[in-house]
């Protein structure tokens, strides 16, 4: 499953920031802080990334 390039709600580009988000969370940073850093202030965009990351995490654990 590929993350949508843009937020469904507001149209902000989220896909390009997603790899950075995953990398930093894996390094141990707080997901909320990373989202703030990347400039995702609206909950619609944060939800796009966070919900997608949860799915990836579950898939990754299977491997
Ligand atoms: Zn949005």
UniProtKB/TrEMBL annotation:
Q: Which UniProt keywords apply?
A: Cytoplasm, DNA-directed RNA polymerase, Metal-binding, Nucleotidyltransferase, Transcription, Transferase, Zinc
Which GO molecular function annotations are given, in alphabetical order? DNA binding; DNA-directed RNA polymerase activity; zinc ion binding
Its predominant location is cytoplasm
Listed InterPro entries: RNA_pol_su_RPB10 (IPR023580), RNA_pol_suN_Zn-BS (IPR020789), RPABC5/Rpb10 (IPR000268)
GO CC, any one term: DNA-directed RNA polymerase complex
Q: Name one Pfam family in it.
A: RNA_pol_N
Listed under GO biological process in this entry are: DNA-templated transcription
Q: So where does Zn(2+) get bound? A: 7, 10, 44-45
Catalysed conversion reaction: RNA(n) + a ribonucleoside 5'-triphosphate = RNA(n+1) + diphosphate
Name the coenzymes or cofactors required.
Answer: Zn(2+)
Q: How does it assemble?
A: Part of the RNA polymerase complex.
Q: Which PANTHER family match?
A: DNA-DIRECTED RNA POLYMERASES I, II, AND III SUBUNIT RPABC5 (PTHR23431:SF3), DNA-DIRECTED RNA POLYMERASES I, II, AND III SUBUNIT RPABC5 FAMILY MEMBER (PTHR23431)
The entry assigns this protein to a family as follows: Belongs to the archaeal Rpo10/eukaryotic RPB10 RNA polymerase subunit family.
Q: Know the name of this protein?
A: DNA-directed RNA polymerase subunit Rpo10
